[in-house]
């Protein structure tokens, strides 16, 4: 029989503990700084930066002045503004001594200050201020290193913002690809029921209004799968009003996956492609029917969505071109959806397309049920 003895692990000596404290304080400051340099983010991060430096006071400022201050010597804030502005202009670290930090308080622990520039993407965006009884070469180097680290976090914030803007631009581009013919034809189909079936015309008109309202909404990168599929249902109702029995749709959805957050307009373009290809082949079939199957199932930590048609199929090489964003390929947003899925979840979650000429097409979407930064 083996006997195991549990012992509490130690962080080792003081050097190890100091390293842990530094890393811990940096990790606490990082989330706020990743939001960019604002008054709110500065307020939330500056106290952790002061703890990281181990000084009586610390502050963060933009190019116009201080945004936040933590610790002692708050009465010196106005005296530091001109230096912060100068550092933001020159990009050079400056030391402020007692001649600038005039103080009548004999017990004040902030007699000198180091002002280090903050740079994001080669642009001076502000300054880190470190207040202390006196400055040393080591403290100046520490201030510059922390300012460099803060600058790196601000650059990541700019990267996140650029990524958000890119995704918004991609959604706008996808909206622009929604076929004008679909809009005209849907309104034409609704008009055809106005006299023969006014109640159905009214219902279809409301569905059309809800579809366009959802497709052109301007808030949120993500939506729930339930909302996305509801928009798909509206789209299919309008298409079935046009084509009648020529379009048959099967929809199977596991209730467990309905609340899952997915990128906005990630399913509807795939369905539009499937309807188009399915109906293209229907004229050559004995029954003249195009069939579409949509499934959404629960698979452990993932949600799997499949859109399949029994249409003409496609050359795999053309599919690769569409996924690469080739505008010459007749595909509604296939590359757009693939790119947004990869941006949101990583390269393991791009579209999977199974197709061949004459064999129909199946498009598979996998999304994790929970992913960092993905929420409705």
UniProtKB/TrEMBL annotation:
Pfam families: HATPase_c, His_kinase. The keyword Kinase applies. SUPFAM superfamilies: ATPase domain of HSP90 chaperone/DNA topoisomerase II/histidine kinase (SSF55874). Residues 169-247 form the Signal transduction histidine kinase internal region domain. Residues 266-369 form the Histidine kinase/HSP90-like ATPase domain. One of its GO terms (molecular function) is phosphorelay sensor kinase activity. This is Sensor histidine kinase. It comes from Nocardioides oleivorans.
């Amino acid at each position: 029989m083996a006997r195991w003895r549990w012992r509490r692990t130690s962080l080792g000596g003081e050097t190890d503990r100091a390293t842990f404290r530094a890393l811990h304080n940096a990790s606490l400051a990082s989330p706020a700084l990743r939001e960019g340099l604002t008054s709110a983010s500065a307020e939330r991060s500056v106290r952790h930066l002061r703890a990281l430096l181990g000084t009586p006071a610390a502050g963060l400022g933009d190019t116009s002045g201080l945004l936040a201050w933590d610790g002692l010597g708050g009465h010196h804030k106005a005296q530091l503004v001109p230096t912060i502005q100068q550092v933001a202009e020159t990009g050079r670290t400056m030391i402020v001594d007692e001649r600038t930090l005039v103080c009548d308080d004999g017990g004040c622990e902030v007699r000198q200050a180091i002002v280090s520039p903050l740079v994001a993407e080669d642009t001076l965006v502000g300054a880190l201020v470190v207040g202390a009884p006196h400055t040393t070469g080591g403290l100046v180097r520490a201030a510059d290193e922390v300012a460099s680290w803060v600058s790196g976090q601000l650059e990541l914030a700019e990267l996140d913002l650029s990524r958000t803007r890119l995704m918004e631009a991609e959604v706008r581009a996808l909206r622009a690809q929604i076929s004008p013919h679909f809009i005209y034809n849907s309104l034409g189909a609704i008009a055809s029921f106005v006299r023969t079936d006014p109640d159905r015309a009214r219902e279809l008109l409301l569905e059309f209004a809800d579809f366009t309202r959802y497709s052109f909404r301007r808030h949120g990168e993500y939506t729930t799968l339930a909302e996305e599929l509801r928009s798909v249902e509206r789209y299919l109702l309008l298409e079935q009003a046009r084509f009648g029995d020529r379009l048959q749709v099967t929809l199977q959805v596991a209730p467990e996956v309905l609340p899952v957050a997915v990128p906005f307009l990630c399913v509807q373009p795939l369905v539009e492609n499937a309807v188009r290809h399915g109906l293209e082949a229907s004229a050559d079939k004995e029954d003249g029917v195009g069939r579409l199957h949509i499934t959404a199932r629960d698979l452990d930590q993932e949600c799997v969505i499949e859109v399949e048609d029994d249409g003409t199929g496609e050359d795999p090489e053309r599919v690769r071109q569409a996924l690469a964003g080739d505008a010459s390929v007749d595909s509604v947003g296939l590359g757009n959806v693939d790119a947004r899925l990869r941006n949101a979840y990583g390269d393991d979650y791009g579209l999977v397309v199974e197709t061949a000429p004459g064999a129909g097409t199946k498009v598979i979407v996998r999304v994790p049920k929970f992913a960092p930064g993905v929420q409705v």
